[in-house]
Every structure is written in C-alpha cells, then in structure tokens.
Design a protein that fits this description.
homotrimer, alpha/beta, Rossmann fold, Immunoglobulin-like, 11-stranded mixed sheet, 8-stranded parallel beta barrel, globular
C-alpha cells in the first residue's frame, strides 16, 4: 500500500529538458502522479481545428519513464483567444447584458451551443489521442466548476435552456404559476418567454430562485457529462472525476463519476473542525470510494510553521489515497506565479522539497506491510441535502451563512465528542449509522420521512432542528404545522415560530451558565436536564413554539414569548429515538450537550478526547492528530504499536505540538 | 372612539374559503381594516386589456360581511411580466444604459409614457369598478415611492422630461448657465439637449445636483397625482394617501392628499428618540390630520421581547388613529415569506394573534367613553425644509448623514427635555409654537426670513445653527456674509467659517467637562454660562467666525482659530429671542443645555423627565411610555385617573420595564 | 530671494470688478502668481471653433497690473458639453462597453483621435493668443493626469493603440507569446487583434498586466507631449510642467518638462515622515530643478490648529520655491465649493487671509538678503523604479500596498535617523550619495546591476531587500536564483523563499524585544548583532532562504523553516558595502537599526534627532520643523543666528509645539 502522491504540472510551459529534470526530481521525492492538460486548450488546439498533442504525448512518455502516472484533464475552463474572438457569443453575459472577456479563465458560458460544439470536438480528439495511453490513470473533467467571478450567465441561450428545463418540469405555464405562487408582487406569467433566470439572491424565497439554482446545477452537471461521455466512448474503462465542485449540488455533480476530488488549502490557522469537515465532505459523496485530494499546498503554514506532514496524514487517515500538491513549480507568468510550490520559485529543490521527499519515503515505508487500507468507519452521519437547504438558504441571502453555520455546528459537536460523522445525502443508506443528524431540512419529502421512520423504528437515533419540514418542494411556506410528514416520528408539532436574529448569524458563546441573568436580556435561553446534567444555553435565529403529543421535553425555553414551552423534544419511536431542537441555531456548548445526549440514546459510549485532536481509523491503523500548538497528554484505551512517533505510552497518548501519531492496533 | 386596526392582506394568493376564515379571525381579534390590491396588477389585468376584478370584489364583500373596511391600493410599483416583455422601454435604465428587469418590484420608470398610459388605464378601471363600493374607506397610491434598488432612471424619456422641467424653470440656456454658475469645470451648456440628469452624489454642490433632486421629487409627485386624479374623477369624495415617501420632498408628495402614512419597523433596540422622531415626522406633514401607520410589524422585539403594545399606544398617543400591521399572514413565496405576521407561518392563530387580539379589545374598552381624541398639542417645532437641506446635503455625499444627525440631535434634545416638537415645513404656520428650532437651513428665502422676524417680534424664540443662509436658491455659495436676510434678526453676521470634520459625522460624547484638557487637543470646544450654569462642549463639522452687532454671546469658542469669538449668540428682537449656534454639529450634552436655555427664553418650564420616557397628550388622555428595559419611578404634577395600569400613585409615576400608562387627566 | 506664492484662480467665474478686487487683495498679501485657465475649455471655446480669449487676456492684464504673474493651464481634463454631445466616442469606455458621461471632469479618452484633434487645436490657439504675453511665467499641461474615477478607457481606439504599442515592442505575436509565457491558462494569441488591454488588477502577474500599465503611462505621457509641443512651437522658451502625476511613471511623465509639481493636502494628522516623503518625491524627479507646489490648502489643520506656516517653511526648506494655495476663493458651485480658501466663503479677507498675509511678509523680509538658495543637499538616496515596482505590485493587487509600505518604511528609517534621502529613479546619478537604499527592485537590469557594482566598488553603500532581481523584464519568474546580476555584489544567492503575509501588509510593531516568546508564535523573527548592539525584530510578507558566498550574516532568522539562515547579509565589495535584507517587509524598529548600521558603514555620523523633527538645509539656511504637538528641547552642534524665532540657544534647540525655526549658519 502506498499513498499516491501527485502534483500539478504544466508541460505546455516548459522545454523537454526541463520536463525530464522535473520528472527525475519527482521520482526522487517519491511522487507518482501528475495532473496534465488542465488549462492547455490554446496549446492543444493552436487555432480552429489545428490540433497538436505531440508535446502532451511527450510529457506523458517522459513521466512514464520515471514511473509517474498521468491524470489527464480537459481544459474546458480556459477557452482560447481565437475562439472568443471568432464567437463572442460564447463569453458569459452578465445580468444586464455585459459580456465577460478573454484574459483569465472561466469566461465562457456552460450552455453555449458553439462552445459545447468546440469543446466536445476537443475532448473527442483528446480521447482519441490518448485512448491507448496506459500511463493515464484517471481523467479530470474541467476544474472547479462554477467557481468563477463570472459565475452566472444570462445569455439568451441560457434563458432558453432554462425555459426548456422549466417546461419539462412544469409542463404548463399555469402549473408553474401555481407551483411558484406567482401572485406575489405581480409575478404571474402568461407565456414561457416571459420567464427569466434569476441572479443569486435576487428574488429571495421564490420558486424561481430555487429553479434557477437547480437549473444552474443541472446545467453544470450536463457540461461535465458531455465531456465524460466523449471520453467513455473511446475509453470505456476510464476513471473519471472532477474537483472542488462549488455552488452546485455535489451529489448531482459527481453522480456517475468514479471519484470525487477536493481542493483544500489549509493554513496553520484553519480550525481542526473545519479541516475535518472539508475532508469528510468529499469522502461522503461517493460512499465507499476513496476521495482524492487534487489540490493542496506544499507547506501549509510555512515558512513560520510547516504543516505538510500533519495534513498529509490527516487526509490519509480520513480515507484519501491520492494526494496532489498544488503545484510543482510556478508558471513563470500569471495569477498563480507566487503560489507555494514543491520546488522553489527558481525551479530548484529547496527546504519544502526536502521535507516532502522525506515525508513520502517515511510514509511508503510505514505502509509497506499493508495491501490496502479499508475506508474509514463512522457510527454517526450528517445529512447534507442541497435541494432542501437551498429552499432555506435562498429565502434570504444571509441564510446561506446561517445554514452553513448550523451544518458546521452539528459537525463540530460530533467531532468534539469523538464521533466525526460520515456526511451523506438524504438518498444514501443510513443503516450503518447509530445516530443521524440532520441540520435544518427545509422541505421533507414523504419518502425521506418514511425512511427516517423506518430507521428509528429499527433502533436508530435522529437529531433534527429548526425550520425543518416547513416548506414544500417549490420553496413555498406550508400551511400545515411542521415538521411535515414527521410529526408522528417526533411526537410533536411546531404550531408557532418566529425569526430572531439577535446577534448576527454566528453565536459563539463562552461555556454556558456564566451570568445567566445578563445573557437572558439579549438572548433566548433554554435550560433543562439531560442525563442528570443541568444544561443551559442560547437559541437563536428562529425559534419554534411546539406542542407535544407523545414526546417529552427535557429542555424548555426559559424566557421569550415561548417561555416554558419545549425546546428539546425526545420521542421514543419503535426501538429508537427522534430528537428535535426548536431553533435554527443553538450555541456551541449547548449543542455539544445535546449531541452527547443523543449519543447516549444511541448507546455510543462517551469518549474523552481533548480539544482539537482528531482520531480516525482505517482497519488496523489509528491516526491521531494534534492540532494544538502545544504538547498534550491524555489517557486512552487503545492498545497497539507505535508506527510513527512514540506517542502511545502506558495507556496514554503524549503528542507534541502539531504531531501526528500512527498506531497499529492490536 | 376606536383606534382602527388594520392589516395588509393579499386575496390574490388565497382561495375564497381561506379569505372567509381570515376575515372571521380578524373580526374576532378586533381588526377593522384591510389593505388590498397593493401589488396585484398581474391579477387585475391578466394580459393586455383583459381585466378581472371579480376576485377583488369578492374579497371586499367578504370583509364587509365581517365589518372590515378596505383600503384599496393601486399596484403601480409592480408592473406585470407581459407588460415588461411587450414594452421593454418601460423598465428603468441605469446610468450607463443598463436596463432593470422583471422579477421583483419597482422595476419600471416613473416617466415612461407607455407605462403611464397603461397605469392610468388600470387605475381608471379600478375606480370605475369600485366607485360604488361603500366598504372602501380609503385609497393608497403606489407603495413606498422611490424606495427601490433601481431608484434612479436615466432613460431618454426621463432626460427629456428633465429638460422640459428645466426649460420651464430657467426659460433660456443662458439663464440656466448663470443660475448654476456652470463655468466650473467647463460645465457651460450651449443647448438643452446637452443637459442630463445627474445620479445621486455625482456632481456635488452643483445646481444640476439640486435640480435633479427637485425633478425626481416633482416627477414622483406627478406619478402619484395622475393616479389620484383618475380616482377622484369617479370618486370625488375618495380619501387618498400614500405611504413612506422616501427620498423625495414629503411635503410636496403629500400635498393635496388626504392623509400621510408612515411605515415603521421598530425593534426592541430602536432608541426612544428615534422612534418618536419617525412618528412625529408624519404627523407634521398634513397638520391637523391624523397620520396613518400603514405598516408596522406585529411583535416588534419578539420572540424575546414583544413590544406590540408599547408601540401601539405610542402611535395612538402621538396622533395615529389608524394602525395597520404588516402583515396578516405570509405570502407562500417570495421576498416577504419570512416576515413577521399576525398569524403563524402556517396561517393559524398563535401567540402573537392572541396578544394582539386582547390588546385591541382592551384598547376598544379603554376608549369607549371618548367620541374622538383631539390631535397632539406641542409647544415647540422643528423645521424640515427639503429644498434647503438638499442644498446642504448635496454639497457633499456625507453631508446627508450630517444633516440628518443635526436634525435628529435637535429633536432629541427637545425630546429629552420633554418638549417633543411638531415637525413642520418652512411653509407651515409657526404661531402655535413658543420655540421654533431650525437645523441648518442652507438657503433662506426672503419670505421665510420675514416670517421668522414676525414670529420672533411677536414673542417667539428661534434657534438656528451652522451654515444657514449661506447659499442661494440654486445651491451656489453666496458672496455676502450669512445668514442671509437674517443678520438683523440674529443681531450678528457670520463673516468667516471653516469646515472641520474632526471625528466623522457622529459626535456622541460623554457628559461634558471630563478631562477638558484632553478634549481640546482633538476637538473645537465652546464654553460659557447659560442661566447661571457653566456649560462646556464640542462643536464639529463646520464652525463660524461671527461678529456681533446687537446680539450677546453667552458661550464662546475656547480654542481654534476662532478662540474667544462667539459660539452661541442671543438676540432680543421685539418680544422674542433669536438664538444662533455657530457650528453645524454640537455634541449632545451641550445641545441639551442650549435647548433648555431656549425653552427658558420661551417661558417653557423645565420638566424633569427620566431618560427614555415619552409623554404625549391628546385631550384628556395622557400617554406615558417607558422605553427603559427596567422599572422607573419619577414625581409628577399630573393628576388624574389610571385608565391603563396603575402607574400614577401619590404624585409619582411608577412604570415597569417597557410599560405604557394611560391617564385620564382631571 | 523670494518664495513665489501663488493661488488658483478662475476668472471665468467672476466679473471684472471682482477680479480687480481679488488682484488687489492678493498683492496686499504678497501673492505673486496665479494659475489660470485650468478647466475653462467651455469658456475659451464657446462652441465648435468659436474661440473667446478676451476674458483671459483681461485677467492676465489685471493681474499684471498688480505685479502678479500667470501660470497658464491647458484645460484638457474638462472637455465641454458640446464636444461630448457631438462626438460621444470621445467619452471613456468602461471594461464592458459602458461610456462615461459629461458632468464632472476627466470623462474623456486620452487616446481618442477626435479628442486629440480638438485639444491640439485649442492648445495651438492658446499658444498663439498668449505667445507674446510676458506676464506668463509658466504653462501647466492638464491637471492631475490619470487621477480620475474613469481612469481606464477600453474603447477600440485604446485597444488599437495598445496593439500598435505591442507590435512595436514585440514585433511578432510569437515573440509576444514567448515573452509573456502565455501558455498559462490558455493565454496564447494567434493574432494581434485578439490582444486586449487589461483593467487594473485583472490578470495579476501576467506580461499583459505590465504592458497595460506601461501603455497607460506612455499614452498619458503622449497626451501631455502633444500639448507641450504645440506650446513650444510658438513659445520656444516656455516653462512647462504638470502637477500630481498619479498612477503613471512620474519619471517618464515629467521627462522633457521644465518643472515637476506636486499637489499635497496635509492635515494636522499627517505624519511627519509621510509629509516629507511626499515633498521629497517631487524634488527628485528633475534633480537640480526646484519642484513646485501647485496645490496645497490654506489652513491645513484649521480651524482647530492652523499649520499653514509650518508647511510653508517645510516646502521651502525642502527646495520648493513656488508654493500655490488651493484656492483663493470657492467657485460658487460644484464639487469644490466647500474647499478651504484664502478668502472666506463669502469672498472676504478673514482669519486665514490675515495669517497668510503676515506669513508671506515675514518670509519676504527674512529672505531679503539672499540672492537665491541652492537646492537641498542629501547624502543618502532612495530608488523608485516604476517598471521594477510594477512587476512586483501587479503580481497581486495587495502588493501595491506592500510596495508602498516598504518604500515608505525605508524612507522613514532614513528620516528618523536624520538622513532624509533624495528620491531618485534607477537612471539618475548615484555618485553624490554615500548610501543608496533600494526597496524591492523586482527586475534588475544588467546595466543597473553594473551601475551598482561600480558605485559600491568606489565606496558606496547599497541596501536592498526582498524579492529583488527575481523577475525578468516582462514580469516573469526567473529560473535562476536571485538577485539576478547582483549575486557577486551581495556575496550571496537567494536559493529559496516563501510568501508569508502574517498579519496583513502593515506591521507596525512596538519597540523590539518585548515578550519575544509570544512574538515568535505569530511572526517570523530575526535577531543578531549590529555594531555591538543586539537587534531583534519581525520579518514579514516574503522571506528568503539565502546561501552566503563572500558575505557575512550579522542577523539571522530565529524561527521558521529558515531558522539559523541569514537574514541580513553584508558584503565588502571594493571600497564599499552591499547589504541585503532577506524579507519584503521588516518591522519599523528593526529597519531603523539596519539603516543606522548602513549609515555607519557609509561613515555617516549618528545624529540624535528627536522623533518627528525635520531638519533640512539650503546653503546657509537651516530649517528645523517640530511636528510634535508639544514643546521640545535637544542639543545641537549647529552654530548660527536665529533668523526666525529664538530656537537656537546655547547649543540647544528649543522649539514650541508645531514651531519652525530658521537659522543662518555660521
């Protein structure tokens, strides 16, 4: 077993001699993969229909000679100058008609028929050229789709494509009017050609807002698919993926792909929980398939503090078997010429090269005895549903921040209690998990409700919160009490509720119970008893008025117009429990108590892990990461052999600042 | 006597059965009015020339059956999709030609002939349809005119309309050049078609800046008037108003209307003085006519602290006889779907409904014995002159903030001393008031100066400040010393003056006299003696060099290049006094002392009211509002009977946190 | 000898009587120059081809009668309405096609052939009209070129002009592709018409970024030159300059001109070092020629603290023989109607007039005995190279701030040690200086390297820092170690290096050595020994890994991945020393120690001057300025006679807060 270490490389910028030198240096360092071709359209197709792949073949060959495999990329995010000049209509169009321009990247429209025609021709050529190239281990489609300063196009082709998308979905304009409740602000349509795409955040809470987001996501997916299709036609066995799919539904975008890849640029200041969230997110997209890290910097935190090794093992310990450093050496010109690189800016091995090199060799040796490592196991899950979350986040611009906060707050509480969750879509299988947490799930489909009922009935524990199940599938307010389809499962109904954004979107309180009198002047406060422990904390953003049916309420509101009413409800249902929290946002300490309580309901024993320590397990190997900038010691029941470092000593872990320990468990 | 309580309702979104249910719930709660039709153009005119008012007739009838009156609104701020598609020229045009788009509201041009043609046809239809509908008690034209993200249109029709406005005003281009002193920066025009409207803040201090603002205001007024005219043609007795007229001259906008309506969304954090300013502002627009509160939220401060009742009585106590809650229930979709509502989000009575309901019934009972309540009386006034203030505020962008601050600073000083003023235009009658305060009045018309002279001569006291009377009517600097036309009245002349924005625009100092040495390093400081009391404080933003003629100067500059020169001048003139303050901005504590001094000159006895308490009187009823989040007690000479609460006890007011007391005076 | 005091005046706004009055008041005050015509195109050319200069002749004559000379200005930054209406193509064009509009100034394109045709015709007319006017002492071309909210034009004429500029420079598109390394992000061009100008900060670090800046600068220069040429054709002896050339290469812009003029608006809060930097900057542009202060406000700091006199003598003491106050009296309308003026806003003499008047008379008397004053002498220099700095600053947007900070940090260290430098381009002669400091010089030309070698060999000391010599002339990363061409001179090579922007761009630390442990957690720290003194401080932004060859390293990194490696390198080379500092940014205290050390290497004795005191010398006169808002006393070895004040007493300087002393040295 070896963690495949790769790096991004741009042979179009270099002479053959330099490429050979680089390949030799990579090999020496233990690097086994390169990403090639990513933005090189202008070098592959010099001008309309005149292709040149020789340089790329040469590069693949050179690397092959050094046992370095290629990840071949399609350059769809960097259309060449001649194409933009010849067909200005391929450039993205802003809200009021202004066109993007050639000069950076991501300047073209995902919908444009001409652009797609040229792109498909190019990808077909690439597939033809490289179909027999055995040194190519994978294909990357595009790069960071949707991540652009020209992210939204409003050209007529996009508008028409959107209209086709709507016609297919709604069939008649009358039905669209009804589903969207367009009576608001004279929004009724009389014909399809009146309907236009919406810019992000323009018409908050409308069906058109949601449909625009869904169209953008589907259109982006389609833009990836037409490329993947061309590759598969010629190379049926091709391993295909893409990286860092922002803004769109990741589960939709990666469906049908062979791997999901993350681009993650941590620093020494990245909080431990945030880092773990980011890497867990991509592991959950295609469950069971090892996620790839396609971009991460050499020397995060350097020059002051070099954390390359810490993050390398964090990725590996969380399931990543491919880790690519971005980048090998700076391109001599352009936006990324000052990025951190494996070589120095002069293209020579320097301090970082030496460190990465010895790290890889150490890793290779450490993993020598293992054929393969199984994927990370997790006993808890966190549900990420784009459609449901969009319904909430697009109700008002700021809610996007609020939703992310909630999602992260739940994840962090699980991380802090040592039960880092698998992040899943609502369609994934929940049966492997003992506790499923669901941050605000604005629209609850009937089938999802049934799935949850079955899961709990058979012994699972569910924790849900806030404005869940209060909206229909078109983003409209429901006229029945929430949570729709789930009132029986949770044994209560939310019959009242009010927004309350007391202090912005980010409550980050000190530990509870300090000066409760003062706190209650400015915050909505809940208190109660969980597992014999007094708990107390703040609720924020939106709070519910709840009526219990079969549930109990161990925590209640202490102030506000809902004083004395349930805050946390717990319902025994079949063999499991359904727990609901009557607020969109809950302070971190209280959420930790709630999660500890849910873990006890799920019979998950309490772990006592220090702050900012991550523990993950793959088969026999245990990875322990100390994110603290100080030495720590804590007792453990793990038994095994120190494979890296000497952290495990007499029932204790002793880790230095920023140290990672690897233990082979007995 | 009953305070008419209303609510905004959108029957176009609901089925008949739901409307009946809502009417019944309203009636039960004591609600007696609804606003209908506000944005419903697409529902009234389904497509070009095809009208449908049956649904609206039905709604009016249903409410009538429950004794609920209708305020009928014209939907001019929400043009339908078919109209925008058919005539894109009706959409607003940005500074450099970009068009607004259909999708929210306020996307059309106030000038467009086509838009006006379609609008007038619709309003005529509405008037015809509802001319015999006795259940309509009032008409609302448009909604919040000028309050839009596309607030300024630059289309050719606007430009041409602006040119006609200018031709009428200036007659020749030579005269315009002269009035505007266009020699600045090659600004001279040779023909009318060279003159263009200016965007807000573009060409500070120019005549064109002022004229653009005046045109926008007049054009907005015209946009309201053409609608009002259509209604009056068919319904001569119609009671017509509009709401929350921002950006334009409110006195111009409401002239000829029957009521002025405010939209005010307070929270628990809204300072008392700010709340009172906002509601006083609309009472003063059409003096003697009760202002309407057309939008205010149910549950301000809720869920933590529900202040519905406090604000209800504050409005009523300050003259509002119609109070409309925004809104009854959320529209299922769109920008306002998470607004606070009387019903819960599910359309059911919840905590807020119950509270509002009992509040209305208590109010109805309390006011049973009164036929009507006279308007609030006030012995002080504050002058708000848009034309004069624009001359100042458009000299530089930030000055708008500065002017508002001054205006609010004067108002707050009067509020804190218990003499909350009537806010008036310079055209209103000043004779009912003993003290008239005039925040920076940049251009003083001769007739206004004469009016002030007469007012003071007959015993009035005037307090004015800053750069008053230093500009002509076209916003030009005068070349004579200020304050123009008023040097005799104030017994001095401002022969010098300099800008000094020391610490931004918002001095909010601690009580005076602390560490005066330190303060004088960074601030211009004035000190003196008023009514035997030492006063000391800071002057800011702009200070004057003054020469006394007949006035005295009880307060002088203590530092700066004007050291030793007059800061506060007082001139006995006839039976009254004219007081001038030689700075644009004065710190709050010093301003309070100056106002107390002016009140003593006006023989207004000193009241001793605690901070953040409002007292207003309508006839025999006294309304006392405690804005403090704590209980308070203070002595009073008022005698009477507690009508609500038990606050008046043995010569003292004892009020709980946020409590309102109502007393029937003996 | 007399310092010529002038003021900006706009006769186009005033009647003849008023002009006469103003001339008389100026004369009385000792003012001897006026700037006329600056923005008066619409008054000179009333409409296409109809010229009127009579009013301007009259004004020149009136002033002449009062012995007041004229600086005649071309009004090229204020095109009249009729021209913009007739030829909309002269208006600037934004990135996506939007046009600027008539209404303020600087709304036209520097490239437009039509605009240039009209402009040249006008300037020719002006030259013809005034060629025999002896009262004109100088000509000012344009005003503050490039300083506009529409600063970048993207019209087709600009694009084509840029392409011609590129063709001339690169000859073939292949060569351009190679020089720019356009392989990055598919940036390769196939024909000239694909290449477009870039907006500021758009494509960071690309050759096109640099070329766009160079084109803008050259184009601006050309815009000045075509005007200067017209004037010189008719008036060969004309004295020609321009003022406050922002955004462009000042050395290029002023080349061939007769004087360089600064516009500087200090306040009482302007730090002493900043003020001195600003005025030194313009003195260095045309070495040996007295710079002009064409705009500075009367009463900086007033009304609280009037510092007119302090700045007047600071300018004079630093070489300025012409000082113009902006402005005499406000134009009645427009953007500058509230500017500070010599007269009051009412056009009358006020406090400032009296103070300026007496100041001028005092100055005239003081300088009576001197024929002329020689220029300021300086023994140190600071190199400002626009081309080299652009390569750095355009690598990333924020770097512009970083570069300015470094430049200012070096200047401030020299100022604080009493060796205020001459600011020079890399082309100027360095031989008069003992120490040359060179803030980050991204691209080092071979000829510049040779010049430095020669300079050091002959005894000079050079101090350089950061990413110097790491880029080629097209902004590309070099593939050899830095500093290119200078490794021998500095006796080391920078073989490694990494960005590290720890705390934003502006380290402003407290004096070193406090809590060093804490500091090292967050900062890269260097320590060592200079001249027997322990030094310690922070390095930031970018740090280098250096290998010594012949140099020594008295200061080394104390932490980071470069721990123990050289931070400050010193190389004896010929008779001099070459010192290098391995960071882009260094904290202020450490930089002061480094500069003190370099001064000692250059045999410049240590001066002990208090903080915020400036000392400059012109011939026999010594100017001492106390920028502190408190009295100070310090010992001195200067001997001489107090010409202004009584500061020099028994080997000590005793200065009051904000006092300036002038000493005639013995």
């Amino acid at each position: 077993m070896k963690i495949q270490v790769g790096t991004a490389y741009y042979p179009e910028a270099w002479q053959k001699e330099r490429i050979i030198l680089d390949a030799a240096l990579m090999k020496k360092a233990g690097i086994t993969c390169v990403r090639l071709g990513e933005f090189a359209w202008s070098h592959m197709e010099k001008t309309d229909g005149i292709f040149d792949f020789q340089w790329l073949h040469d590069a693949v060959k050179i690397f092959a000679e050094y046992n370095i495999k290629t990840v071949m990329c399609t350059p769809s995010s960097a259309a060449p100058a001649w194409l933009c000049k010849k067909y200005p209509e391929v450039l993205r169009t802003g809200r009021t008609g202004e066109k993007a321009w050639f000069g950076v990247r991501d300047h073209t429209c995902y919908t444009s028929a001409i652009y797609r025609k040229y792109l498909v021709r190019l990808v077909r050529k690439m597939a033809e050229e490289f179909q027999n190239e055995e040194n190519i281990i994978a294909w990357q489609i595009d790069n960071e789709l949707g991540c652009s300063r020209f992210s939204e196009c409003f050209c007529e082709e996009c508008q028409n494509s959107f209209r086709r998308f709507l016609r297919k979905k709604f069939r008649s304009i009358e039905n669209l009017n009804k589903c969207w409740a367009t009576t608001f602000w004279s929004g009724e349509y009389t014909s399809w050609d009146e309907v236009e795409l919406e810019g992000y955040g323009e018409n908050m809470g409308a069906g058109r807002t949601l449909a625009s987001a869904e169209f953008r996501s589907a259109n982006g997916k389609d833009f990836l698919s037409i490329q993947a299709k061309e590759i598969r036609k010629r190379i049926p066995h091709a391993v295909i993926g893409t990286n860092n799919l922002t803004r769109y539904d990741r589960y939709e975008g990666f469906a049908g792909m062979d791997f999901a890849a993350e681009d993650f640029y941590p620093t020494a200041k990245t909080p431990a929980a945030e880092a773990v969230f980011r890497i867990d997110l991509y592991r959950g997209i295609l469950p069971g398939k090892s996620p790839w890290m396609l971009e991460t910097p050499p020397g995060p935190g350097a020059p002051l503090q070099d954390l390359t090794k810490l993050f390398f093992w964090l990725f590996a310990g969380h399931g990543y078997d491919h880790i690519f450093y971005f980048l090998w050496v700076n391109h001599p010109a352009g936006n990324e010429k000052t990025h951190k690189t494996v070589l120095t800016q002069y293209g020579q091995p320097g301090v970082l090269y030496e460190r990465i090199s010895s790290m890889i060799h150490e890793a290779d040796k450490l993993l020598e005895g293992y054929d393969t490592l199984p994927q990370v196991e997790s006993s808890t899950a966190l549900v990420y549903d784009y459609h449901a979350s969009w319904i909430y986040t697009m109700s008002f611009k700021g809610e996007e921040v609020a939703y992310t906060w909630q999602q992260r707050n739940l994840h962090e509480a699980l991380f802090r209690t040592g039960y880092t969750p698998q992040i899943l879509s609502s369609k994934h299988d929940f049966s492997p998990y003992k506790l499923v947490t669901i941050p605000l799930h604005a629209h609850v489909e009937k089938s999802f409700a049934e799935k949850l009922e079955k899961y709990v009935k058979e012994g699972g524990v569910v924790l849900m919160n806030g404005r869940s199940g209060m909206y229909d599938g078109y983003s409209k307010n429901l006229t029945e009490s929430g949570p729709q389809h789930l009132k029986k499962l949770f044994g209560m109904e939310m019959h009242d509720g009010l927004e309350y954004a007391s202090q912005g979107y980010m409550p980050d309180y000190p530990p509870a119970c300090q000066h409760p009198g003062e706190k209650e002047k400015h915050h909505i406060v809940a208190e109660g008893n969980l597992n014999g422990k007094k708990v107390y904390g703040c609720a924020d953003h939106w709070v519910a008025g709840i009526k219990l049916t079969t549930a109990e309420a161990p925590v209640k509101f202490r102030n506000s117009i809902y004083r004395g009413m349930p805050f946390l409800t717990v319902n025994r249902f079949g063999k499991g429990y359904a727990v609901y929290c009557a607020a969109d946002m809950v302070d971190k300490e209280l959420m930790r108590e709630i999660v500890l309580y849910c873990e006890s309901l799920a019979h998950l024993p309490e772990k006592n892990i220090p702050e900012n320590v991550d523990i993950s397990r793959r088969g026999k190997l245990l990875f322990v990461t100390n994110f603290n900038n100080k030495d720590i010691t804590f007792p453990t029941e793990y038994k095994g052999k120190n494979k890296m470092g000497k952290a495990l000593q007499k029932g204790c872990f002793k880790l230095k600042a920023w140290e990672t320990a690897i233990i082979e468990l007995i």
